[in-house]
Specification:
Layout lengths: L8 E7 L1 E2 L11 E2 L6 H15 L8 E8 L7 H14 L2 E11 L3 H5 L1 H6 L4 E7 L3 H7 L5 H13 L4 E8 L6 H14 L3 E6 L7 H4 L8 H17 L3 E4 L2 E3 L6 H7 L3 E5 L4 E5 L5 E6 L3 H7 L6 E6 L2 H12 L6 E2 H8 L3 H13 L3 E4 L2 E4 L1 H5 L1 H8 L5
Parallel strand pairs: 1-4, 1-11, 2-3, 4-5, 5-6, 6-7, 7-8
Antiparallel strand pairs: 8-10, 9-10, 12-13, 13-14, 15-17, 16-17
Length: 387
């Protein structure tokens, strides 16, 4: 196993409030009444960071990702204090990628420049669609004009790293409409686009009132194909199942997840994964309720689960994440980061190679074009038997 100080480290910080919870959302997001308790929440985050810092002593975080919820609802001053505080507690590498998630909205867009001055280097804007009707049916509270204005504001604020989130497979959406959304995203000139299929998650309002006009599998495949062609033609390289980037603009934080790196999770509902000096991988999960988490932040009670990942699940997690990246993963990395014997892994994957779903070239394993389309089916077959 690789020494933990040679495994890349990121920091994930969860800010759990939104103005409105969208119909499809199953994240730990809570509708906000009034202003977020920014100062108190930042204090709690820094208390938790201080409590967890010994677990990552001697390691420098290469990325920081502030997700939500809608983190851009927090004042830039609070985000700046948070980032300064984290840097004083945890070693954050010079030039680290620092991402903030944002939703379109005039007040938030006006603050984008101040977020950059506060230390944010990359902005991820949750546009989802440029169709007012699609946005309405998703339960979004912005319209297409606000989405365009927000992306323009992010670019005008001086961010060189801007991501635009875009969905397809929306209720009533046609192939042409999905392509039009991508065409508009490309025309705005952002260097990174996350383009992913709408998923109906159990327990969400969308699942409880399932739209009768969701696209079928054939239409979804046609949407994906035409959007892929449009993105590739505009110079965006697909480097992960749902991620497309111009040269030099891949999301380092997400790549760290997919390459089975470590990450410290801070905040209500945050998840973390850390490797210790013995090569043991532990996953931690914080309590979801912001109020209850804030009252316990910095104490063991704020963590509702801390579980060591056994060998079989470690192997599955590594392969599951690694196959999401189009370049795949290295067999030596599988051994170093997850303790998987290259020979054992190659034998286990052999049936999928024979079926043309996976390819092994030297030490490199990746999903084929067909394998990417049916990756979920491959992963179901690879799940440990205790599922």
């Amino acid at each position: 196993m690789l020494s933990p100080d040679r495994i890349p480290l990121g920091v994930y910080i969860h800010l759990p409030w939104c103005l409105h919870r969208c119909a499809y959302c199953d994240f730990n997001a809570h509708a906000l009444i009034g202003a977020p308790p920014a100062d108190a929440y930042v204090d709690a985050l820094l208390a938790e960071a201080a409590a967890e810092a010994p677990a990552v002593a001697g390691r420098a975080a290469e990325t920081v990702f502030i997700g939500g919820g809608t983190p851009s609802l927090f004042p830039p001053e609070a985000v700046g204090r948070l980032l300064d505080g984290v840097r004083s507690i945890v070693d954050v590498a010079d030039g680290a990628e620092v991402t903030l998630e944002a939703n379109p909205g005039s007040a938030e867009a006006a603050a984008y420049r101040k977020f950059r001055e506060a230390g944010v280097t990359r902005l991820s804007v949750g546009v989802q669609s440029f169709s007012d009707e699609s946005l309405r049916r998703l339960g979004r509270i912005h319209d297409a004009a606000a989405a365009r204005a927000a992306v323009a504001a992010a670019l005008n604020a001086g961010f060189t790293g801007v991501n635009l989130d875009l969905m397809y497979g929306l209720p009533g959406q046609t192939r042409a409409a999905a392509e039009a959304d991508v065409a508009e995203a490309v025309a705005l000139g952002v260097p990174h686009i996350s383009h992913y299929q709408l998923t109906v998650e159990p327990g969400t309002p969308l699942a409880r009132r399932l739209p009768p006009d969701l696209p079928d599998q054939d239409l979804l495949a046609a949407m994906e194909e035409v959007c892929l062609e449009r993105l590739a033609g505009a110079g965006y390289r697909r480097y992960e199942i749902s991620a497309y980037a111009a040269a030099g603009h891949r999301c380092c934080h997400n790549l760290n997840y997919w390459r089975y790196g470590d990450y410290l999770g801070l905040g209500a509902g945050a998840h973390g994964k850390l490797t210790d000096s013995l090569g043991r991988v532990t996953r931690a999960r914080r309590m979801r309720s912001p109020r209850h988490w804030m009252a316990r932040a910095g104490t063991p009670a704020a963590t509702v689960e801390r579980v060591e990942v056994d060998a079989d699940h470690r192997a599955f997690e590594f392969v599951m994440n690694g196959l999401r990246v189009l370049d795949g993963f290295d067999l030596r990395a599988a051994e170093e980061r997850a303790g998987i014997s290259p020979g054992d892994l190659t034998r286990r994957l052999a049936p999928f190679v024979a079926d043309g779903l996976l390819a092994v070239n030297g030490d490199r394993v990746n999903a084929t074009v067909t394998g990417i389309r049916y990756l979920d089916s491959v992963l179901v077959e690879l799940l440990p038997s205790d599922r």
